[in-house]
Amino acid sequence: MARKPAASKDAAEKRAAPNVSKDELLKFYRDMLLIRRFEEKAGQLYGMGLIGGFCHLYIGQEAVVVGLEAAAEEGDKRITSYRDHGHMLACGMDPGGVMAELTGREGGYSKGKGGSMHMFSKEKHFYGGHGIVAAQVPLGAGLAFADKYLENGRVTFTYFGDGAANQGQVYETYNMAELWDLPVVFVIENNQYAMGMSVKRSTKSTTFFGRGEAFGIPGEQVDGMDVLAVKAAGEKAVAHCRAGKGPYILEVMTYRYRGHSMSDPAKYRTREEVQKMRDERDAIESVRELLLQGKHASEDDLKAIDKEIKEIVNQAAEFSKESPEPSLDELWTDIYADDPATQNA
Amino acid sequence: MATEILMPALSPTMEEGTLAKWLKKEGDTVSAGDIIAEIETDKATMEFEAVDEGILGKILIAEGTQGVKVNTPIAVMIEEGESADDIGTSSAAPAASSDEPPAQKGKGENSKDEVGETTSAVANVKTPQPDRSPDWPEGTKMKTMTVREALREAMDEEMARDDTVFLMGEEVGEYQGAYKISQGLLDKYGPKRVVDTPISEIGFAGIGTGAAFGGLRPIVEFMTFNFAMQAIDHIINSAAKTLYMSGGQMGAPMVFRGPNGAAARVGAQHSQDYAAWYSAIPGLKVVMPYSAADAKGLMKTAIRDPNPVIFLENEVLYGRSFEVPDVEDFTIPFGKARIARQGKDVTIVSFGIGMSHALEAADKLAEEGIDAEVIDLRTLRPLDYDSIIESVQKTNRLVTVEEGFPVGSIGNHISAYVMENAFDYLDAPVINCTGKDVPMPYAANLEKHALTSAAEVIEAVKKVTYK
User: Fold this and answer.
1) How many independent structural domains does chain A possess?
2) Touching check for A54 and chain B: CB below 8 Å?
3) Residue B53 catalytic?
């Protein structure tokens, strides 16, 4: 049922002759680059004191969300934890709205009331943005419960990390999701560190994709630095869910280049380890090579895309600085869905 | 174009730090993501990465410098072809000279006075205007039913009315409900809408909340609220806060229900009243009915409410019979207390099972010539402050009755509110009758003493009326 990933050599060969259109490759490049540049800018704004609190960057993991979004259909849902900026950009949310939420401004997706960890978009079917590790797992299964109940054929992508994978509620959810055949893809983004705790130090059962087997949920491991492999695995998982066969687990092997949050002493791994991943496995570089090798794009074409993305990110940053802080009336709104004035204690 | 690199804030609280080490030197080419320096704060040493590519033109702050304020320029990046000599060092960012980054400063200044104003505006309800309209018109045909039947009938009617309403929980289906509240519902609505869950409180509370995000109207039954402590993260962090955190985009229209408080002789872990806990949370509505009519009318309102509602039932009350109006679609609004008994000498405020003690005490006090007014709050959030204030303005004395622990109780909150808003009307200090400040003991005699009682209420009333 559970299956190991293809050896990396096979994966490399697969990359050499990918079954993917030029347009799709260009889209992957653009979408991943947008996330990276956006996150770099967020890091910069944090350093300037414009973004406060906790800020968890997605740099290095871009291929995961971009690959899986390519397997999604309109109306499918997604939910994740607090490392959520990449998911929002990948599902088409506006970079300015996301950045303005990071700076706590009126123009942010939650009017500045959610922050980096708590953002939502009903329009894009993005259900957060949750700050409690693994809480999004049953919530995601609940979204799938609603879809099954409403018989609308939708699938929910429920993202969580290798750290969350050790939380008890994940297994309560696996049990019920399989029991009720819920259309949910559990995506474990295994970036190998839960804050500073490496997978090896947190469990002896290090193959997370196999942990669904006890409940009857099939799973597989995927190379998360290869956006094409992620997409292919995503399509398989989604097909399983949409066929009414219940949940599916994807353990996507990825790597975060930056710290857990902005305040990360980075003493739990070596600089060389990080540099090696960046040099040898970077997902954006891989797609760039594919584009150039396949003569789908010239250096100049890619430079033009880089420039365009930089411009989008700069505009988002400008918007996030110019958008005013929320009006003080906002303190008292959105507490209750009906007449807020009468509901506050 | 030359750009300044500023001393970064690397944690939510960092204001200054030590520039421990430069890992790049002047003239080095830097790409985005390269670690260029190590910065030490009181918490840790952290790596500082470049965000843009270029050449490190000039280092402005030497390594080893302590107390470098956030946003002070520490180096200048130049592009190829530029010379480091062109760089003036006088261009210290204005932010660096100030103690705080400008954005944060503005925030602090504004929020202080205006927030203060808003808070006091909420607290200062001077003239009470309680809703004293009858719950049902005079002459309405009544039927006798137990609280259990009333709750079942309410859920049944709402499930018939709205297809998105479903019930989930342990033993709600085939077992017909651990306390028989859901008896017959599985047969009527089938397993799609009456969902038996495994014993997984945090799991099914989370799934229920997610289903509410996804457009359904779940009723999540906890076999008792003691077990909801396993799930309280979803009740509070997921269900209650999402509407606010999403800027009003999505929330959790749902009901969490089940028996709450002490039953009889089940010991400390199965005997706790959570009224005060949940009532402390903005975003939740909290209901705790006493009578069958209230149980029915409030349950129907709870299921229709677009917010998460905590519905606290009581095992001891399930089998008690009351008169319930025999009308179609009978509902009771939230935030409207019920004057269970009119009186002029003292106000007794209670809710849920506490009402038994309050009413019994009032009967006995009447025999002694003390005329007590008894208010059943019914909903704890929103709370009908106006009914309490109006009554206190009349009686000038107040006793609260509840089963929960004394510290941070509903009675404590009401006392504070009354002191703030009707201090001049009080002729005696308010007394809170509560459960004792002990885990619930098992022994019959100890358990009895751990709970509050009519006798305690009578004693409290005599104290505040100086009798």
Assistant:
1) 1
2) yes
3) no
